[in-house]
Specification:
The structure is a homotetramer of 350-residue chains. The first copy, chain A, is globular. The first copy, chain A, is of the alpha+beta class. The first copy, chain A, is built from seven helices and 18 strands. Chain A has a single domain (5-349), classed as 4-Layer Sandwich (Chorismate synthase, AroC fold), CATH 3.60.150.10. Chain A has helices at 38-48, 108-115, 131-148, 182-197, 225-234, 255-258, 327-349, and strands spanning 5-6, 11-16, 22-28, 65-67, 71-72, 75-76, 81-86, 151-159, 162-163, 204-211, 239-244, 262-263, 266-267, 275-276, 279-280, 285-291, 301-304, 310-313. Chain A is 26% helix and 22% strand. Chain A starts with a strand and ends with a helix. Chains A and B meet through strand 1, helix 2, helix 5, strand 11 and helix 6 of A and strand 1, helix 2, helix 5, strand 11 and helix 6 of B. Strand 11 of chain A pairs antiparallel with strand 11 of chain B.
């Protein structure tokens, strides 16, 4: 039973391969009478678009969305919203050599093992390009969050070992890394250039803060808010770890250190990361995602082909050096999709 | 829309409050003709049972399961398997003082915010006691894994800052901590005793290794194997972070360091943690869960009551010092439930 | 993937075999703070109870429900409501001869074909006894309908060819047939006695009218209100046909005859049966279910055994002559469960 | 929670309005390595296409599908199959007068009541045009049925009171009514012409026979095969009743008449319609659907506008006289989609 749908009330279904004619999304369960235009979505798509800086891939795609249904005279109608983004600038022939070989760190081997057939062109369905549909869906989800007053801030916390030292939101969109610390951003840029020369790639950490989330969202016991956020964020290709609030630091703390005291004006600290017993507590929600380095590197790597014979591979071409920054709006989108779903679920639950 | 069911084909629904008459589970989607007895389940329940060592709570419950349906003459029939565990040794009056006050680090505040009503006795639905039903479900899931040859090993990797230095499986059940390193276990025991005197509690890390999992399990894109494992593990009350394979360490590595080379005899390393592009790759699956310290501590804490007035609270009674070790079989159960579901999903997908 | 759960927001999961220790239901998604007692449910269970009249089976079961979770101090808490009904008066040995033989018109053959194993005692999971859990669930659903002002009236429209000629609600509970026409009820009683002497059984038609349903319930396109009602009602063992409003008569009408004109004070007729384009229109919802004759009859029938050899069978014992009247509250329950789910779904959709 | 997805393992999600730029479907859960081309789907679409005979609407649309994903080199890949059909020949301005008025028998009133907004052009989402996406999905489902050897035959059983007297399959595609009785077809044609002159429309009955279905499909208790077939067929706009096997005739029969005796060579009769206790019994599956007359008629009808004021309406234009024959392939498609889902579900269940 396949897994291309996310959400229970606000449901996003995505489809499309990297080098097919198009990719897209169907959103079912969006309430009626919300204002929505293609421009709203294009704005978000622009943030994850390849080719927006020297730090990201040179594949140039306008990534303009077309709304095919579910919107009438600028408003959602309550029927499914179908979004399509046509693929352009596709150089499939460049992938011909990869038809018979498994790239390390990619899904080539596992897709072959699972399906017995594989669209090898650009990673097919496993391509990061798939996330464009998530970002488009997230832009629609934001309309629901707007009505509640929820804001989702996503940013680079760490890249190639360089860690942010301040959260100065005014810088967030001033640099190509979605980095709230301009000094760190400068060091990150240098780190990216250095590793590029080595034909290697970098990992990092994305952090998300959700502001304005009311207490009461989340559905015990398996659909706890943090549990579904963990699924949402871990479902992004490059993510290897997810933390809420104190995260792995919690393992080394004592109860007296970790418990957030309640006061008449709110929680005195936020180790909980805004979620207690799987339900939002009204405080800021804090999520972190560990992002692995891009597996496509120019350095020569050891691998095998479909016949199991040893091969070497060097992946040139127009690849990013890190999933960051392009993954930042994707993580934000998954958080938005999760929250929009829980906002609607709570309406049914109350 | 509530969230008390886990899984899509192999589905576990749990119910029950800490101080109600009983708690239980209904398993729907279990294939017919698998051998199953109450004793199979009791064995797993014994592992998470309170009162099995001085390190865990003194509430003594036999935790014997009764199978009410779905099994005929020792075999599953394909119909829903209903499991019930009666609550005993319930001292509800001890919780009377907590009726009007919110315990820090617990779900008291958020349950009240969400539902406007709360069974305050022993944490109600938010009690760790709920996990007994998960463990029972996991014992049934194991029957499906047995047929495939999948083994799930769960153990304490870290407790109160004490880290395991070796994985010697023969010691795993020799100490009360499910700790594969006897020396570490001895230090952990001392650490627990020391913190107990301080009226405080400890966090830690649980690690799970899945052996014998075939390549091909997991459903792109949102139901990636790692994504659903993340939800499964994060849905356990005390968990604040989940990692797969390299986890957060991946953020500091380069692609050349992180990629696992493929060789004719398998992967040369396992930073992937057995999962690539959301699909098992045939290697060992490695999952880690960060466990926060138990929030119920004897030390005096600052909090508020239902009227929002400041209060202090000191939680005495028979509480554990750490969710570890009792959480270890719970994490194992959630991994088993996830894998059993994906084994059956793959049968439908192939 | 099994199908023991009904509903998407208000979800009923049932379990249990005819001759197991108990049967029950778990209701997930019931809003908090609704008043609920076991007595509310017992009242509904009494309506479908065997042994309430000479026209129904002599198996005598008190059918008292126990609420095991989800209710605290007389109110629902928003957590799963677990209901259990213990089986009593079970004479399993009477079914021993049926272990190796397939009863005509029953699920014996198909359960064996599907599962390769079968609890033959009293029909196991396929027994009409399973519907007790539906009726219990329907009693909880009614609490949600109460808040909206929805009333569900179910009654016998036809039994053994005897058709009701008037809908006089005051007689509905005055006779054992849930029959709103006392004269018809008298003829039905005679018909039942006559067929009983012949060792045969009777079919009939149940009609349901839903009053007070607001316009706007139902989810196009596949979860139309009439579509899900059709599934709900057809999922009851003996039902072979479902109609909404004009039903099969619509096939013979013209558009001018069938269309219900709209007027400032409502629809001028109700061929729609209260549902247009899958959405309730505010008018009375009308559903009819065709009920086949009970397949267990004393007359000798031709059949085969598990080895495929020809056999004859005569089924004596304490069987009903018709699924009517006991099926009437079951049909009502399925309609209630459907409507409660759509009431909550609409809250999330608006 | 919206309802634009059908199926649990083989899942069809449809989207699109009558007068939007396109409509389409996403199929998730289709197994890999099945042969599939756009031509396979176009063949089915041609059967329900408007303008194929004088008996159907004059809107002329080529209805060519484009496969946007999930198929690689002529084979399914296991990833979502996205299908798009562009709308052409759209005369939206013809619907301008209907913006403020509710057409009797249509969803205009209920869509407005539910959503508070309505795409009035051509019925919007409630248009029968939506069923093109179902037929496209059914063509994909057929690929799964092919592998099992299941054939679905759908035909007109009755139109405008004219009933088929023989099932001569060789005539099925010889007349525009999918009518297996050439004499009946001739009378039907005359009946259609006569009613057209009166500015009125006709209803009818569609029957489906499924051949080659193995025993064992269907999931008790709520997802019985007949229950889900009932939902599937009733979810088609014009359907007011669904029968399985004996259907409403069962109400008037006795058990001795209705039970199908089992013999060493199969069932001696088929009142069950191929389904016992919700599970296929290996016999021919028989389903009937009552189809109401097309509500759009030229005759003057009484109605109201959005302000609730009385109005009259006469609907001219290019409307069909009956949903038959165009609904016939739609009913077939829904049956195929249901069976394909249960075939895959049984793989997971066994």
């Amino acid at each position: 039973m396949s897994g291309n749908t996310f959400g229970k009330v606000f449901r996003l279904t995505t489809w499309g391969e990297s080098h097919g004619p198009a990719l897209g999304a169907v959103i079912d369960g969006c309430p009626p009478r919300l204002p929505l235009t293609a421009a709203d979505i294009d704005l978000e798509l622009a943030r994850r678009r390849p080719g927006t800086s020297i730090h990201t891939t040179q594949r140039r795609e306008p990534d303009k969305v077309e709304i095919l249904s579910g919107v009438f005279q600028g408003q959602t109608t309550g029927t499914p919203i179908s979004l399509i983004i046509y693929n352009q600038d596709v150089k499939s022939e460049a992938y011909e050599p990869l038809k018979e070989i498994f790239r390390p760190g990619h899904g080539d081997f596992t897709y072959q093992a699972k399906y017995g057939i594989r669209d090898h062109r650009g990673g097919g369905r496993a391509s990061a390009r798939e996330t464009a549909a998530r970002v488009a869906g997230g832009a629609v989800a934001q309309k629901i969050l707007d009505a509640v007053g929820i804001t989702v801030l996503a940013y680079t916390l760490e890249l190639g070992g360089v860690r942010v030292r301040q959260l100065a939101w005014e810088y967030l969109r001033e640099n190509p890394f979605f980095c709230p610390d301009p000094e760190a951003a400068t060091i990150m840029a240098a780190r990216v250039q250095a590793i590029k020369k080595q034909g290697d790639s970098l990992g990092g950490i994305v952090e998300v803060r959700v502001q304005g989330c009311p207490a009461g969202l989340g559905e015990p016991v398996f659909d706890k808010l943090d549990a579904v956020l963990a699924q949402a964020v871990m479902s992004i290709g490059a993510v290897k770890g997810v933390e809420i609030g104190s995260g792995f630091d919690a393992a080394g703390l004592t109860g007296a250190q970790h418990n957030d005291p309640l006061t008449p004006t709110g929680f005195a600290s936020n180790n909980a990361g805004g979620i207690l017993a799987g339900i939002s507590n009204g405080d800021e929600i804090i999520i972190r995602a560990a992002v692995k380095p891009i597996p496509s590197i120019a350095q020569t790597q050891q691998t095998i082909d479909r016949q199991g014979r040893p091969q070497t591979i060097s992946i040139g071409g127009r690849h990013d050096i890190s999933a960051i920054p392009r993954i930042v709006p994707v993580v934000a989108a998954m958080v938005k999709l999760t929250l929009a779903d829980f906002v609607l679920r709570q309406k049914a639950a109350a």
